[in-house]
Amino acid sequence: MSEGYTLHEDPRSGNCYKIKMVASYLGIPLTIRAYDILKGETRTPEFAANVSKANAIPVLEIQDDLGPRFIPESNAACWYLAEGSDLIPEGRFNRAEMLRWMFFEQNTHEPNIATLRFWYQFVGVDNLSEEQKAMITAKSNTAVSALRLLEDHLATRDWMVGDAATLADVVLFPYTQTAEESRFPLANYPAIGRWLERVENVPALTPPR
């Protein structure tokens, strides 16, 4: 039995879009199971029992001879799909560099840029708790630092690692591309802008959202 894949996702999520990017680039069919996180559709006993106890998306479900198995972290799911492909570079150093940027994306970049996007675009500032409102300035400052780091890195190179797109570019693309929805004008980051265009021009790498 060959592997089949179901992506449990909310289509508004950049973390979900990463997995679609990898699958599209590699020509891997995905069955999509969509949820609305604003309606709490992932925070049910059924979702916890059948998909992920973390009650979060994305989750990549793998169907094969071993039965359904689940990968609940976006970057781990991207790695699983991409292993053995040219999205993972050759050489120990380049692979470590790729992982460095993947860790940076989940530790510094996404928790700030993506969270602000979610609050501004989907929740609304007026609907935030006082604790969340108090976090906006710190998250904005950290997000700007992350974007400046990317800008400096990309000012002298075309890709995050090596001479072609890798998973580092994939995982950083979705929430960088939508940074203006988090109130960070991309015109302030010309190197990032050029990099976004390069990623968009890789055939099949950026499917419709």
From TrEMBL:
Coiled coil: none annotated. Pfam families: GST_C, GST_N_3. PANTHER family: GLUTATHIONE S-TRANSFERASE-RELATED, HYPOTHETICAL GLUTATHIONE S-TRANSFERASE LIKE PROTEIN. It comes from Pontixanthobacter rizhaonensis. Keywords: Transferase. One of its GO terms (molecular function) is transferase activity. SUPFAM superfamilies: GST C-terminal domain-like, Thioredoxin-like. Residues 3-89 form the GST N-terminal domain. Residues 91-209 form the GST C-terminal domain. This is Glutathione S-transferase family protein.
